[in-house]
Amino acid sequence: MTNKDKLAPKPKVSEAPWEDGIIYTKMWNRFLPYLKAKKEFSTEVHLPLLDMLCSLYQEKTELEQILKVTGLVFQTGEGRNGNQVRLRPEATQLNVVRKDIKHYTALLDLSLGKVDGRLGGRGKAAMDQLPKGTDGDWD
Predict the structure, then answer these.
(1) What is the rounded distance in angstroms from the CA atom of residue 64 to the CA atom of residue 14?
(2) Which residues contact 120 (CB under 8 A, 6 or more apart)?
(3) CA dist., res. 93 & res. 35, Å (int)
(4) Rounded Cα distance, 11 and 109, in Å
């Protein structure tokens, strides 16, 4: 660690480090109070992970907007095998971003239902809060 690193200003816990992204700031403000309430909260560990998670949500939103305009697939020109329908690279990237969001959400022990108070916990206690008929019991 150099002197320059030691003198660098530390980010404030209450402020989102990236102010340009609307979705980024929204998710930061939504998740941060829940993380700060945990007794094992550490700015060195949790804030970089939260930063990555919020930037993934921002990227997901931008990719969804692009795909809404362009569509999920495109056709290649006539070639040896004729027309072919292929998945757009943005659609593939969207799947990767969704997988990464699940990964970072699990690392931080977050979910939108948990943070917003829709589900009290996991397992049977969470299933008890669901409306009747949605618990998988079809009898």
Answers:
(1) 28
(2) 126, 129
(3) 28
(4) 22
Contact 27, 57 (CB under 8 A): yes
3-state secondary structure of 95: helix
Q: How far apart are alpha carbons 104 and 45 in whole angstroms?
A: 12
Q: How far apart are CA 10 and CA 29, in angstroms?
A: 18
The kind and range of the H/E element at 11 are none
pTM: 0.69
Using one digit for the tens of pLDDT, what is the confidence trace for 95-109?
Answer: 999 999 999 999 998
Task: Extract the tokens encoding 99.
Answer: 């997988």
Distance between CA atoms of 43 and 46, rounded to whole angstroms?
6
- Token pair 């907007």: residue: 65
